[in-house]
Recover the amino acids of this structure.
């Protein structure tokens, strides 16, 4: 079992709410915490509250004029399109600053706990708002909490921070914030920008000396191909980079049921990725792991189960995939959503992959994506791109 593990939670985190028709419905994190609680997963962690990020803290990654603009929108609810608020992706609403600052503060609390040694791993499932830019809201994201955590760690004296983003969308905001900073390695595995927002994340986007790494996977990629790509790129780079802290964005919108994207992972494939990141945190970052949520728009079938597995894995008490979801939780799901809840903690898959070291097929689009990334960045880290 890992040492002390913290989960940062406050019921007010559900106030990050763009309205009843918006895909990023806060009920997804409410159901996640309820499921983790009913399964006893939260008994194995330290559950702590949080405070909103202060303006000076937000200013580590966001322009002051942008923070001021968000505050003005927050008071009136009137759009500010220059700030990216008032669009279909990022509707303006009264209280948007307070809600967004609380999400940022929760991830900052997680980073603080890990850096100060109060916890080995810390998680904010309400976080992962990786599209927010220094002076603009984007892609459902107002303040960039993973970016803030990384910037805060650097300010405290961290010499190297690694960031791994497994959301189906490119982690463009975090990449942009640290693109020219060799102290930060950003790795994003995502659906190809040719078919999905935000249209960035090509392998050729390499930052300074390979500080940015992008694995752009073809639509339709499932467990086997995704895990093949992950293992071909992420472990060698993390081992070479030797970070003091691993920060991860655990968006689960790579699932086959997600309505906004086109990858085909199962819950079991995602759970396998959590296991691998947990191992890599111990192997390459002294066990220091800050994990956030992220995207995920199948609110009942996917998000609660995926992130309950994430918390359980981090806590060292993994949930048997065959475990039935508790009756109390299923009743709560019906009450809150009117939907039919899943019966077990698995999709019934047994994810396996073939290692790239066994050879690659230039006719396979997944292998081509893998080799495009390795060819672009491995030499910049002194690694041989060939398997």
């Amino acid at each position: 079992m890992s040492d002390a593990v913290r989960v940062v939670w406050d019921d007010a985190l559900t106030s990050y709410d763009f309205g009843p028709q918006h895909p990023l419905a806060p009920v997804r994190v409410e159901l996640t915490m309820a499921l983790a609680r009913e399964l006893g997963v939260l008994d194995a962690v330290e559950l702590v509250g949080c405070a909103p990020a202060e303006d000076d803290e937000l200013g580590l990654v966001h322009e002051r004029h942008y923070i001021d603009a968000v505050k003005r929108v927050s008071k009136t609810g009137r759009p500010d399109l220059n700030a990216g608020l008032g669009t279909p992706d990022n509707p303006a609403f009264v209280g948007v600053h307070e809600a967004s600052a609380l999400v940022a503060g929760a991830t900052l609390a997680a980073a603080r706990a890990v850096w100060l040694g109060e916890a080995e791993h810390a998680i904010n499932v309400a976080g992962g708002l990786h599209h927010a830019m220094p002076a603009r809201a984007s892609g459902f994201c107002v303040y960039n909490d993973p970016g803030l955590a990384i910037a805060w760690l650097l300010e405290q004296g961290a010499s190297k921070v690694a960031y791994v983003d497994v959301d189906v969308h490119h982690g463009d905001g975090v990449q942009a914030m640290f693109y020219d900073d060799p102290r930060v390695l950003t790795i994003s595995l995502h659906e190809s920008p040719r078919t999905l927002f935000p249209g960035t994340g090509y392998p050729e986007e390499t930052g300074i000396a390979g500080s940015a790494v992008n694995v752009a996977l073809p639509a339709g990629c499932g467990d086997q191909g995704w895990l093949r790509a992950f293992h071909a790129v992420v472990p060698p780079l993390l081992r070479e980079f030797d970070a003091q802290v691993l920060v991860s964005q655990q968006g689960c919108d790579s699932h086959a049921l997600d309505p906004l994207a086109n990858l085909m992972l199962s819950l079991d494939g995602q759970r396998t990725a959590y296991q691998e990141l947990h191992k890599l945190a111990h192997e390459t970052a002294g066990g220091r792991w800050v994990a956030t949520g992220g995207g995920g728009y199948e609110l009942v079938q996917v998000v609660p189960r995926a992130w309950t597995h994430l918390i359980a894995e981090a806590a060292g008490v993994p949930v048997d995939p065959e475990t039935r979801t508790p009756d109390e939780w299923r009743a709560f799901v019906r009450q809150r959503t009117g939907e039919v809840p899943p019966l077990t903690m698995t999709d019934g898959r047994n994810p396996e992959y073939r290692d790239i070291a066994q050879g690659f097929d230039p006719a396979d689009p997944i292998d081509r994506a893998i080799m495009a990334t390795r060819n672009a960045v491995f030499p910049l880290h002194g690694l041989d791109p060939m398997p």
